[in-house]
Design brief:
single chain; 341 residues; mainly alpha; 13 helices; 0% strand
């Protein structure tokens, strides 16, 4: 598929597509802003910021900006490989931020649909193609979160966490699974299809599961044939590393001298719990569970108020601020769609 430009589309087709896309994204943006206003506690965040070291805070913001840039490059790379369309880095970055915002209203941020809708509205890329790319991207992120969490667990003292050989084996299994999918997606697709057909599932659910598996592995196959899947693995590992680095710097900025494995374990464990409980954006449960894990792993080492402040600052930077910006982009798209491209 060649490059697609909105200017090259028939006027009627572009207007019709742009109208429903703009209205849908506007509704997303307004809903996100309403949820943000109901959940954000600016007073507590302001109190926490007064205690932080400004230089280290700047380093954390730089790590966050770099992480968003890498995500934008990854999304741009995937879209080009799958569709032949070259999107700008600016559009990629806006799509990432808008996707996080839209994902905040879905269970466990499981589906960042705004990214696919933006592609549809600005480049007329079918939702099926962009959705399949989004699924691959999300699955890669989840796998790397689990691998990073288990790696951190292996370095946390075993008297605090049930780590040891089981953790090492699980890490090896996950790495082996990712490598197998990257090397032989067609074979994995047949295996997954056989398992789904064998499982005692209702007919409709089985059909959806088969469709999802086929979409996922077909996309992996296309990316493998173009020799791009390993590049995606590298970019995703950079995203995960920058994510953990930001949290560690925020904790340092608050004067919390805990080791990197412990901070990473608490952060990633809380993030996984938020996804598992299917709470939109993990709001509330992520903050509480992360502070609780730190208190459990290092009892009495750090005052609870300081830990809570560090967690709030990191969540504000990495989630609430991004959601606010993303909601603004979604609302602005309703009127200024052309300047986003």
């Amino acid at each position: 598929m060649g490059d697609v430009s909105p200017a090259a589309l028939p006027a009627g087709r572009e207007a019709t597509s742009g109208r429903w896309v703009s209205l849908l994204l506007l509704a997303f943006g307004l809903a996100i802003l309403a949820g943000f206003a109901a959940t954000a506690n600016f007073r507590q965040i302001g109190e926490a910021l007064r205690r932080i070291q400004v230089i280290l805070l700047g380093s954390a913001i730089a790590a966050l900006a770099l992480q968003l840039f890498v995500k934008a490059m990854r999304w741009r790379f995937m879209v080009h490989r799958l569709t032949g369309t070259r999107i700008s880095v600016r559009f990629g970055a806006i799509s990432v931020v808008a996707g996080v915002a839209a994902g905040s209203v879905t269970p466990g941020r499981s589906f960042e649909m705004a990214k696919a809708i933006l592609l549809r509205g600005s480049y007329e890329i079918p939702l099926g193609l962009s959705t399949s790319a989004m699924i691959v991207e999300r699955m890669l992120d989840i796998v790397f979160v689990v691998i990073a969490f288990l790696t951190a667990a292996a370095f946390v003292p075993t008297r605090m966490v049930l780590a040891g050989r089981v953790v090492v084996l699980v890490i090896a299994a996950l790495v082996g699974g990712v490598a197998l999918v990257a090397a032989a997606p067609g074979l994995c697709s047949r295996w997954a299809g056989a398992v789904i057909r064998w499982a005692p599932l209702p007919g409709r659910l089985r059909g959806r599961a088969l469709g999802l598996a086929e979409t996922f592995f077909t996309t992996c196959q296309v990316l493998r044939e173009q020799r791009t899947l390993w590049v995606l693995l590298l970019l995703t590992s950079a995203v995960a590393a920058l994510d953990v680095a930001r949290v560690a710097v925020v904790f340092r900025a608050m004067g919390i001298g805990l080791g990197l494995p412990l901070v990473a374990f608490a952060y990633l464990g809380a993030a996984m719990l938020g996804m598992a409980l299917l709470i939109p954006g993990g709001v509330g449960v992520t903050e509480v569970s992360m502070a609780g894990l730190v208190a459990f792993l290092a009892p009495g080492a750090i005052p609870a108020t300081v830990v809570r402040s560090a967690v709030l600052i990191d969540r504000f930077l990495s989630y609430y601020l991004i959601v606010l910006l993303g909601a603004g982009f979604l609302i602005a798209y309703h009127r200024y769609r052309r300047i986003f491209v």
